[in-house]
Specification:
Elements (H helix, E strand, L loop, with lengths): L1 H24 L6 E5 L6 H17 L3 E5 L6 H8 L7 E6 H10 L11 E16 L12 H10 L5 E4 L5 H13 L4 E4 L3 H9 L5 E5 H9 L4 E5 L25 E9 L4 H15 L2 H10 L8 H22 L5
Parallel strand pairs: 1-2, 1-3, 5-6, 5-7
Antiparallel strand pairs: 3-9, 4-7, 4-8, 4-9
């Protein structure tokens, strides 16, 4: 009798312990921070806020966007790299924080591969090469072939704008320069807005920038689109041929976004995050948001996303070294 009572007590205790463990292991149990390494109001921030809203609905816990801009997105990335690995601090990282930064910053305070657990790639957005119809020097430039021919005729005399030295569109232009075998003079700005304004006014000859920010001026006739840097044409500009179509097969430059947790985050938490973010990215609302930005919803696996990051680090480190680009 005593033995049976002891066994019943032990079973009850084990059952209670299991219930407690399950309760403690349920994720998420409190608000989750989604760190955006850029200022509020930009395209990255817009995507993050839509994701956070959808994840809040799906999980029943608030996903809260926290903007930590600065140093080419490395401040926000470093914050997450050093955060507790419990799934309650995540990063919406980009090509800047996890690829180009490796070549640009000799003393990067985090390792993009070792200090993070990749969750999924969100989207990848192409650039568009734009000039101005108001620019008398480019009056006869109607295609990428025309632009390259003019640049070769006057090496180093054409200028290109970027949103800053070491920015993704600066390095994208350097990649195109190398592919086309041309020399251009770099004019860095503090952001895409003023850079595009000066290109539209004819003060600078050309620029590569994401489709979304250039689109209003293209539609208004202030900018002329010469080429898209994805392998397929953009649904937002279906009449604009890709760079690859125009004599540069395989040329592709995409600005991608992805989700990361700190390295060491429990596998069960990563699995839950991957499952939930994948479902959100495949929803009609999220797909519509991303397509309006100029990119598809990707929802890759952690292994696929990790492989992309490794290849992108190698690619952009080479571009930085060849161009001599330095961060602002």
């Amino acid at each position: 009798m005593k033995r049976r009572t002891a066994l019943l007590c032990a079973a009850t205790l084990l059952s209670g312990a299991g219930t407690l463990a399950n309760a403690q292991g349920a994720y998420p149990q409190r608000p989750v921070k989604l760190i955006v390494p850029f200022s509020a109001g930009g395209s990255t921030d817009l995507v993050a806020r839509q994701l956070a809203q959808e994840m809040t609905v799906r999980t029943g816990q608030p996903f809260v966007v926290d903007n930590k801009p600065g140093a080419g997105s490395t401040i926000g990335a470093d914050f997450v790299a050093k955060a507790p690995a419990d799934g309650y601090t995540l990063l919406l990282g980009t090509i800047s924080s996890h690829a180009t930064a490796v070549g640009l910053y000799p003393k990067l305070p985090y390792d993009p591969l070792k200090d993070f657990a990749p969750i999924t790639e969100i989207t990848a957005i192409p650039n568009v090469i734009v000039t101005s119809p108001q620019n008398p020097r480019l009056a006869n430039v109607r295609s990428l072939a025309d632009l390259v021919a003019l640049a070769k005729k006057a090496p180093g005399q054409l200028t290109y704008a970027s949103s800053g030295s070491g920015s993704s569109n600066h390095l994208a232009t350097e990649s195109f320069k190398s592919a086309a075998g041309i020399a251009l003079n770099h004019i860095p700005y503090k952001g895409s807005g003023p850079a595009l304004t000066d290109v539209g006014a004819g003060h600078v000859d050309l620029m590569l920038d994401v489709v979304l920010t250039s689109l209003p001026q293209i539609k208004a006739g202030r900018l002329r689109a010469l080429g898209i840097t994805s392998l397929q044409r953009s649904p937002l500009l279906p009449d604009v041929p890709t760079v690859a179509e125009q004599g540069y097969p395989g040329f592709e430059v995409l600005g991608w976004y992805g989700l990361f947790a700190p390295a060491g985050t429990p596998p069960a938490v990563l699995e839950r995050l991957g499952r939930d973010f994948t479902a959100v990215l495949r929803s009609d609302r999220m797909r519509a948001t991303l397509e309006s930005q100029g990119g598809p919803a990707i929802a890759s696996t952690p292994a696929e996303f990790g492989a992309l990051i490794r290849s992108e680090i190698a690619r952009w480190k080479k571009v930085v070294e060849q161009s001599g680009a330095k961060p602002d």
